Structures are given as structure tokens and as C-alpha cells.
Sequence to fold (135 residues):
Amino acid sequence: MDTDATDRTPYELLGGKERVLALVERFYDLMHEREPVLARLHPCTPEGRVERGPRDRFGLFLIGWLGGPEDYVRQHGHPRLRMRHHRVAVNVAMRDAWLRCMTAAMDEHQIAGPVRRFLDARFAEVADFMRNVPD
Fold:
């Protein structure tokens, strides 16, 4: 990633733990608001909001994935994303719904420049990698 001639991680470029966790919160709130079918794949409150557990786990994962502390790995082991998501049929529609929520969350948090280009590409790669059913 071209990081404006520095060696900072995406985690640092985003502003650290609080900014990453705020992004995760908005991502799940947008999922509830705009993609309720996707939200319901997670444990939800009676109102349909994704519960704390998935939010906290994804927050820990994202922090480590972006180059921050590896607390997720210490607490949960290797992410093994496809294995952990095997129970969910991830098709093109689900992939695209996930990406719409993450894109909107990054837009609202005004993530731009080299880190945004990096995240757009990486999130698209990972989301497509998670597909496990043909369309």
C-alpha cells in the first residue's frame, strides 16, 4: 500500500482502536438499516440489530487484520474465515450487501486517500473469497 511515504499500518492511518471500532459499529448499524437479510445471519436483538458479540469479535479481528494488536488471535485463534463462516451461504448478493455496508461506513467516516484505496481493494478480495455457493 502506498502510505504517503510512511511505513504506518492501515490501523495507524485510520487512527487506531477507537476509529476502527467506530467503523465497525457503523458498519453493523448500516447492516441493520439497509441490509436486514444480512443482519439476520448474526445473533440479533429483538429489534433486529446485530448483538455485541459479533460486533466485538469483528472489531478485534479488524484491528489485527489492519496491523494493530493481535488480540483476536490471542482470544480466538487463527481467523480461518471460510471455516468460521461455512454455515452461512455466501453468494454474490450476500457479498455485495456486505460490501455496500462497509463502503457506506467508510464513506461516513470519511476514509479517503491511499488507505481507502487499499481497504476498498482488500475488502473486495476478502468478500469475494468468502463466497461459498455458486450463483
